[in-house]
Structure formats: C-alpha cells, structure tokens
Amino acid sequence: MKLLTGLLLLVFGHGVSSVLHSLHYFYTGSSGLSTFPEFVVVGMVDGVQMVHYDSVSKRAVAKQDWMEQVTRDPAYLERETGNFQGSQQWFKVNIGTAKQRFNQTGGAHMFQWMYGCEWDDDDDSTDGYRQFGYDGEDFISFDLKTLTWVAPVRQAVPTKQRWDQNKAELQYIKNYQTKECVDWLKKYLSYGKSTLQRTDRPRVSLLQRSPSSPVVCHATGFYPDRVVVFWTRDGQELHEQVDPGEVLPNHDGTFQVSVDLDLTAVPQEDWGRYECVVQLRGIEDISTPLDPALIRTNSEDKSGLTIPIIIGLLVLLLAAAAAVVGVLLYKKRNASDKRHKPVGSDTSSENTEGQNPAPEAQPLTTGQS
C-alpha cells in the first residue's frame, strides 16, 4: 500500500523554489480495538492539524487559533459535529460490508478514507485524490484522469461497478478535486498565513557517535518541512555513501532531519572535499564543510546527537499512534465540501465560508454485499 507520509516526507532532490500546499482529510473507523476510538477524523492544511473529531468526545474541535476566522459562524462546529457523526455511521456499515467481502468474522479491523488536494503556488498546478483502504491495504481509489474507480482487490469490484455508474457523482468529484478543494485550501492558507506560510531557518550541526560511525548532518528548527538536505564531494551531489533520514516533528511545531555520510573508505585528509548542503525556500543555501573541528561527538556532548533525535522519534511515535486511530495516511486522491453536510441539506447557501469541505462517507454497497 502506498501510505501518505506527508507529515514525515523528505524530498531529496532540487527545486525548492515552489511549495506544494495541501489540504487533507483522514477518516478512520475501527472495530475490535478497545483501546482506540472507533472513529476519528483529522483535517490538515500543509501537515498542520486544524480540525479533529473522535467518537469518544463526539465533538468537532478546531485545533488552531487561526481557525477562529472559520468558526465565527456559531453553528460551524455544531454542523461539523453532526456531519462527522453521520459519517461515523457509514463507517460502521462499511466495516461490516468489508468483513463480509473478505469472509471475516471477528478480530480487529480498520477502514480508512483519505481525500484532499494539492496546489503548487509556483505554476498554479493542482491535483486531487480520493482513496479508501481496509486493514492497511488499498481498497479502492478514484482516477481523476479517467473519472473511474480503481479496484486493486477483487473484493472492491462490486463497489467499483456501482460507483462507476453514478456519472453525476463522478463529475462532482472531479469538480471538487480540481476547484472546490483548492479554493478551500487557499482560504485556509490565508487564514493561517502567519503560521502556515512562515519560514524558519534551520540550525545545522555535524554529529558523530564514535570515530568509526557515519558523520550525521543534522538540520533542526526549520519550517516548513519541505527541506532538501544532501552531501556533496568537490561540489557534486553524492548519491552513494549517503543514508537519508525522514523529516521528524519537533515539540515546538518545527521539524528536523538527519542525513548520514559513510566515511569508512575516505581518509581524513580528504574530508575537506565534502560539504553538507541544506536548502529551504526563502533562505540562501546553508553549506557546512566536513571539518573535524565542527563535528560534535558523544564524548564532547552526549546530548548533541541523542536528545534532539530522541525527542523527534518520541513525537513521531506519538504521531504514529494517532495514525493508528485516525491518520493512517495514504499517498494521493480525494473529494467534496458540500457533501460534508448531512444528506438532504441545502448546499446552495451563499454563506458557506468555514464549512469543512468533506463529502459524506459512501456505503460500499446497498443492502447485502
């Protein structure tokens, strides 16, 4: 399965002049997991959570101060709560249907739905996606080019056949993914501009556990998370000897990443040919030469290597736990803000600002599967 690693993705390569902004929604329903809520919804803009709902609190909650511009409508959170509660019921139906399709009875099971859009602020290109998964595997996804559903497993074929027949819905999903979702994304970006569109300069350190260990180029405290970190030799980017890490969240909302350089076969007199380069939009490249005098080791400062990375890993583990309940993230494809209203509600209201652009969760089938 192609899991969405948007929060933790490090794009290695060049071309950081543009920023790919995203609006993602993640729904997770579960059964047989007594330690987790049976239903969770998370909405995220550029990897920052801005709305949350779960079946324990049974309330939609705005997670960012700038969401006050959306929640000025006193009925907003009440409306969203009702919408999510309705989706919760559909997820119960879908888990039951999926269990029948896979000939399952008991056990722990999860049904996930992820949808959203992306917008490149440089060339104004967009993309949209809508995808469902069951028990950690792709179940069915929407193909925006062909306006059809793709069923990677035979158990999803009945759903594909039924959904493909609804031509009006297919056109609506296309409109949402290419326009409505992007419009909402731009609104949220303007609401949270001071937070979402800021640039925090990374702090770069060279770390080494022992003389025989790789040298680690550790960048931390940067925002946004779309950073490029690489090693060079004589000014040329290295692809061998290098072990790139994932972008990890810091406790203060910034990010960190480490890229290892294996110097096993490199004599120390040649170290001066190497540099670590960090690129982040809005700042000049940060180049740090591989100078033994600049390397922090455990013998000099044991916290230099372990503490920032351990903190990031702990935060990552917490995020992963949340992912189990609600953010088992897929890699691309989604759908609609007006259908996030209860079925039968008036979608022609002029005052729709602040509405969560989430379509109703769809039943996999009608009646028996």
Automatic annotation (TrEMBL):
Keywords: Glycoprotein, Membrane, Signal, Transmembrane, Transmembrane helix. It comes from the Eukaryota. Residues 345-355 have a biased composition (Polar residues). Residues 335-369 are annotated as: Disordered. Residues 1-18 form the signal peptide. The chain crosses the membrane at residues 305-330. One of its GO terms (biological process) is immune response. One of its GO terms (cellular component) is external side of plasma membrane. Residues 202-287 form the Ig-like domain. InterPro entries: Ig-like_dom, Ig-like_dom_sf, Ig-like_fold, Ig_C1-set, MHC_class-I_related, MHC_I-like_Ag-recog, MHC_I-like_Ag-recog_sf, MHC_I/II-like_Ag-recog. Belongs to the MHC class I family. This is Major histocompatibility complex class I-related gene protein-like. It comes from Gadus morhua. The gene is LOC115535454.
